[in-house]
Design brief:
149 residues
């Protein structure tokens, strides 16, 4: 991703969204984060419909971070929907969830997630996780596995 990269973040918890934005800022990652609150808004954003129709203000992302537990449509629904859309074959999908359950992780990968991140419990841990995210996605480092906790 370049300085003009865009990440779509589906997060219904405003506190988590705030800390996530703060961690990205602290890590100095040169991307713009676009937040939506639920799975239906992910679809609307990707389709460029409704409030997301202006592509200058809401450009297509290179990567989407999806919370598993969202209203209307959850992260699993989003993985399934996006992977059925040929126009989004190159969209990288990352689950960012508080669940560290093996069944959730396996299901996410089975539905096409590129990576699964478990939400940390402190700002310091979140900043470190975002730093690892930066190394993997922006700098191409091999983190030696598909799950990051």
């Amino acid at each position: 991703m370049s300085d003009s990269g865009h990440i779509l973040v589906a997060e219904d918890d405003t506190t988590d969204a705030y800390f996530f934005q703060r961690a990205f800022n602290r890590a100095g990652i040169p991307v713009t984060l676009h937040f939506v609150h639920d799975g239906q808004e992910v679809i609307d954003y990707l389709r460029g419909e409704g409030q997301f129709a202006d592509r200058a203000a809401h450009p297509l992302p290179q990567l989407a971070l999806l919370d598993l537990n969202m209203p209307r449509l959850d992260g699993f629904d989003m993985l399934e929907w996006v992977r059925k859309q040929p126009a989004f074959n190159n969209l990288q999908l990352v689950i960012f969830s508080s669940s560290d359950e093996t069944k959730d992780i396996n299901r996410a990968y089975g539905l096409g997630a590129n990576w699964y991140l478990v939400k940390p419990h402190s700002m310091e841990e979140l900043t470190a996780l975002v730093g690892r995210f930066k190394k993997h996605w922006l700098e191409g480092a091999d983190l030696g596995g598909r799950k990051a906790a």
